[in-house]
Structure formats: C-alpha cells, structure tokens
Amino acid sequence: MKIPQLHIPDGFINAPVSILFLVISAFFVFLALRGAKNQLDEKVAPLAGLAAVFIFAMQMINFPVAAGTSGHLIGGALAAILIGPWAGVLAVTVVLIVQALVFADGGLTAIGLNVFIMAVLATLGAWYIFRLLQKIFPKNRIGFLSATAIASYLSVPISAIGFTLQFALGGTAAITLDKVLIAMVGVHSVIGIGEAIITVLTISAVLSVRKDLVYGASNLKLSLVN
C-alpha cells in the first residue's frame, strides 16, 4: 500500500485509532468554537469565510514535488496568522469536512485523523511558532514576514510527524515506521517551501492594504511598512 499524502484515506489507519482521533479532534473543535468568539468581530468574520474559500481552492491544486509525488497547501499557518488560531482551526476543519463529503478527498472514517494533523497540529503549531519568533525577530515588516515564513514552513513537517504518530498507533499498511517517517517528513519538508511562499505572499498582500485585518499583527505597536 502506498504511503498517502495529507489527506488520509479510509482504511489506512485502523478503526480504534480513527475513533480516538475523532474524539480528540472534536475536543479541539469545541475549544476552537469557544476561543473563536474572542477572535471574530465584524471585520474578521467575513475574512474568515474568504480564508476558508481560499484554503479550499488551494488544497484542491496539487503541485509536483518529486517523481510520482505531489503536495498542496495545508493553510493552517495562513488561517492562524490571518484570522486567529482558533478561528483558523474552525476554517480548516470546515474545508476538510467539505472535501471529504463532496469530493471524497480524505476518507469519511478518517475525518478525525485529518482534522487533527491539518486543522489542529498545523494551525496551532504554526501559531505558537509564529508568536515565539515574533519575540525574537525585529519588530518590522521583514521580521513579521520572516516569522510567518518559518512558522508556515514548519507547520507542514509537523503535520507529517503527526501522521507518523497516527500510523505508529494504528497503521494497517505493511510499511515499517522508519520508512513512513522518512518518506512523510522528507516529502513534506519540500512541500513546506511552497506553503511558506504562498502564505507569505498572501499575508503580505493583506498587510499592504489592510494591516488591521491581519490578526497576527493586531498587537503590534509599530508600522509594518519598513
């Protein structure tokens, strides 16, 4: 059986582990529903919908990585920095559910697995890396976008490691764990470059016209022009 890219299909992870991560993901979605109340206002709420549509569209477009391998934008970092981490978790979750139900992109029984690695790990992981780097990098546009680039890049292999954990707990394919880890992290370390480029370009464009709409820039007491 071939190692899947992110999204996980039905049957690749056994039922008990799939159910476990469905419960875990549901818990995080519950937290996101509560947390998003403080992140979504009259300005950000419409942007959240647009962000979900954009992530949906970009996830449907695959780009080649190596022979027989392709990848797509996850969008967790983009959502977290643009509309906030909890609202971002919700946006990516909605995208994943629609893709599974309408386009069979990711299995129905694997929704919890996919939500955990892409909506939870990628989004929250990117956010906390981004916030840490903001404390280290210069307080200007270059520092802000550098933190965005690194956080979005790292969110992809983080998701791949999350998948490897799920496979270790309940993988059904006759593939050794070390091969899964090397394949997933290796490929997604390359895919992360595309993730970083798309995220930086998108955030930079919004910053240029409406800095106040970028959640990650809301607490900065400085101009991001320089």
Architecture overview:
The chain has 226 residues and is mostly helical. The protein has one domain (15-217): Arp2/3 complex 21 kDa subunit ARPC3 (Orthogonal Bundle). It has seven helices and two strands, in the order ααββααααα. It has a two-stranded antiparallel sheet with strand order 1-2. α1 (15-35) packs across α5 and α3 (76-83) packs across α6 (141-170). The longest helix has 33 residues, at 177-209. The termini are far apart.
Q: What is the highest CATH level, the class?
A: Mainly Alpha
- Roughly what fraction of the amino acids lie in strands? under 5%
Largest sheet: 2 strands, antiparallel
> How many distinct beta strands?
2
| Mean residue pLDDT | 84
Reading the helices and strands in chain order gives HHEEHHHHH
Shape: globular
| Overall CATH architecture | Orthogonal Bundle
Radius of gyration, whole Å: 17 Å
What is the fold named in CATH at topology level? Answer: Arp2/3 complex 21 kDa subunit ARPC3
Helicity level = 55-70%
Number of domains: 1
With helices defined by DSSP (H or I, 4 residues minimum), what is the helix count?
Answer: 7
Give the termini distance in whole angstroms. 51 Å
Enumerate the strands of the largest sheet in spatial order, edge to edge or round the barrel.
1-2
What class would the helix/strand composition place it in? Answer: mainly alpha
